[in-house]
């Protein structure tokens, strides 16, 4: 109320030109309603008491003075005309309605929701001092603008496709990947896997999409949320449903899915590879820990042998003859050679760490790495451009 319903001296001067108290407070309420929420007051509309009291106090009247306001319809019309003339308010009709329609057409493509477009429309009307029409009128205009924007985007994408590309995209609905499903449904059936078989299935789909050779630049000026919406539509439709919709809409959905799925499958390949690497590392860590655990008894025995030899040598310290026989007395030279060899082997086992056993998982990499590398060298720049274009 403080922001929108505080009257300045000029407002009060205009209000005082009305003769009767009921007309003064009614005129003031109409003025405030124009400012916020930006619409006409309806005949018989109930005004919240805090609002009527706040406005009446500023002009030295009582809220009850409003009860007799606009007993004549002509009075309300006269006040409306005066307000428009004094403050520059315009009705939503004629050229002003056309200007607001053009504003809707300009902003509908970027609008992420109908609610957001309605809010923007209302704020723009207030900024331009255009009196708001009824809510149903606003919703209808915004809904029509969103539908028109969607159709323009679909037509723009379809217009960038040549005849050969259109035939390839439509072929996704007519060609079977196997005896059960269409190529289109087969392409969208991908998810992060855990082994080389999963990654090879992903690469098969990526190779097929690479063969279509559809440039991601066809979506360059399409808002990200519109691209996301087209992709989701493609992921919800069945093949027959896509065949039944209009040509531009169908081609826009198919083209968007081909571009987006190329990037998504590339992401899936990388994530699956990460899972395989993680699995190999965990297995190597398990092997390392198991070997160290298995060597504990041997380590203890080796240490005990060196302890016995060391104790004997310390006892014989200072007596060269005794020292010479200390090895024979403790374990013997042959046993000492075995102790040293065992210690060397155990030292390698303990120092090795999990990384020394990672190479045992190489056979899993070689089942898909060559094909994966081929895709990356041929399509790496394309994948990079897709990643840079997609929102994080």
Name a few traits of the molecule:
plasmid; DUF4158; Transposase, TnpA family; 3 domains; mainly alpha; single chain; 392 residues
Describe the structure.
The protein is mainly alpha-helical and 392 residues long. It has three domains: 79 residues, no CATH class; 66 residues; 230 residues, no CATH class. It is 71% helix and 0% strand. The chain starts with 8 loop residues before the first helix and ends with a helix. The model has no long low-confidence stretch (mean pLDDT 81).
Task: Furnish the topology, listing elements before pairings.
Elements: H1 9-16, H2 21-35, H3 49-58, H4 73-87, H5 94-107, H6 114-128, H7 135-159, H8 163-174, H9 183-187, H10 196-212, H11 224-236, H12 239-244, H13 247-294, H14 296-315, H15 320-330, H16 333-352, H17 362-365, H18 369-389
Helix pairs in contact: 1-2, 2-4, 5-6, 6-7, 7-13, 8-13, 10-13, 10-18, 11-13, 14-15, 14-16
């Amino acid at each position: 109320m403080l922001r929108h319903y505080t009257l300045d001296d000029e407002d009060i001067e205009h209000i005082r030109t009305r003769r009767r108290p009921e007309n003064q407070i009614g005129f003031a309420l109409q003025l405030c309603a124009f400012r916020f929420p930006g619409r006409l007051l309806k005949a018989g509309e109930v005004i919240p008491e805090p609002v009527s009291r706040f406005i009446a106090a500023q002009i030295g009247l009582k809220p009850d003075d409003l009860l007799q306001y606009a007993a004549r319809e002509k009075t309300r019309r006269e006040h409306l005309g005066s307000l428009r003339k004094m403050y520059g308010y315009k009705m939503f009709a004629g050229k002003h309605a056309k200007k607001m329609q053009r504003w809707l057409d300009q902003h509908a493509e970027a609008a992420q929701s109908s609610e957001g477009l309605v809010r923007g429309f209302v704020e723009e009307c207030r900024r331009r001092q255009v009196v708001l029409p009824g809510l149903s009128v606003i919703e209808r205009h915004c809904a029509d603008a969103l539908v028109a924007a969607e159709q323009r985007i679909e037509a723009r994408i379809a217009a960038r496709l040549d005849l050969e590309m259109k035939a390839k995209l439509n072929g996704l609905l007519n060609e079977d990947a196997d005896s059960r499903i269409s190529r289109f449904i087969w392409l969208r059936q991908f998810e992060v896997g855990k082994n080389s078989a999963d990654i090879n299935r992903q690469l098969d789909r990526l190779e097929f999409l690479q063969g279509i050779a559809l440039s991601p630049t066809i979506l360059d000026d399409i808002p990200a949320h519109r691209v996301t919406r087209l992709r989701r539509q493609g992921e919800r439709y069945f093949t027959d449903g896509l065949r039944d919709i209009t040509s531009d809409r169908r081609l826009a959905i198919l083209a968007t899915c081909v571009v987006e799925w190329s990037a998504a499958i590339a992401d899936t390949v990388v994530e699956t590879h990460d899972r395989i690497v993680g699995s190999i590392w965990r297995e190597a860590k398990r092997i390392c820990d198991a070997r160290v655990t298995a060597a504990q008894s041997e380590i203890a025995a080796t240490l005990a042998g060196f302890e016995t030899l060391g104790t004997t040598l310390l006892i014989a310290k200072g007596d060269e003859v005794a020292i010479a026989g200390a090895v024979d007395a403790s374990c013997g030279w042959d046993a000492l050679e075995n102790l040293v060899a065992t210690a060397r082997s155990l030292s390698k086992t303990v120092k090795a760490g999990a990384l020394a056993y990672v190479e045992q998982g190489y056979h899993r990499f070689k089942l898909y790495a060559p094909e994966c590398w081929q895709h990356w060298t041929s399509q790496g720049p394309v994948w990079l451009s897709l990643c840079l274009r997609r929102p994080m």
